[in-house]
Known about the structure:
By secondary structure, this protein is an alpha+beta fold. It has a domain at 73-198: Maf protein. It contains seven helices and five strands; from the N terminus they run ααααββαββαβα. A five-stranded antiparallel beta sheet has the order 2-1-3-4-5. Strand 3 (111-122) and strand 4 form a beta hairpin. Helix 1 (4-15) packs parallel to helix 3 (37-49) and helix 2 packs antiparallel against helix 3 (37-49). The chain is globular, with a radius of gyration of 18 Å.
Amino acid sequence: MADADLLARAEDLLRRGEAAAAERLCHKALARAPRDAGALTLSGRAAAARGDRDEAVRRLAEAKACAVAAQHPDALIIGSDQVATVAGRILGKPGGHEQAVAQLRLASGKCLQFLTGLCLFNARTGVAQVEVVPFTVVFRALDDRQIENYLRREQPYHCAGSFKSEALGIALCERFEGEDPNALIGLPLIRLTRMLEKEGINVI
């Protein structure tokens, strides 16, 4: 288990906007306990706060997998996490209508990049495969009526960037760019298949 005092200090620094300092403390905690889910989560939040999108989703995906390892000590555990970015700005899950409107106005007519962190953690051996899979969505130019109609019908408030591609969100798009469309819904199955093969599990 990571040093609770170190993590408490890191949390306090993060609340005060000192992400880099918080991250340094997280690294110290992870040096002592490399698979501690709390330290990984806090480290991911700190990385996101300082704008390192790839590192944020990588750590948060690993944290999710490691969090359940104690209950499943012989399992292969999948963890994933996702952020959306547009114009250099990270868009998380909006959590409500007003923030979703703001996110979709920002995305209108632009390229939205989704970064999905994927972790396959072997709880028995302690080996974690962690990768980041990008996928880009080019949005149509949207007016407020379209945004309101979409949000009222879909309510994608738990989706990164307010975008729910497997449903009505498809109507917001001009085109997709990327190797695995499953990454859009948070689980890049092409990359996961390769990870499973490295663990000796052949899907076909």
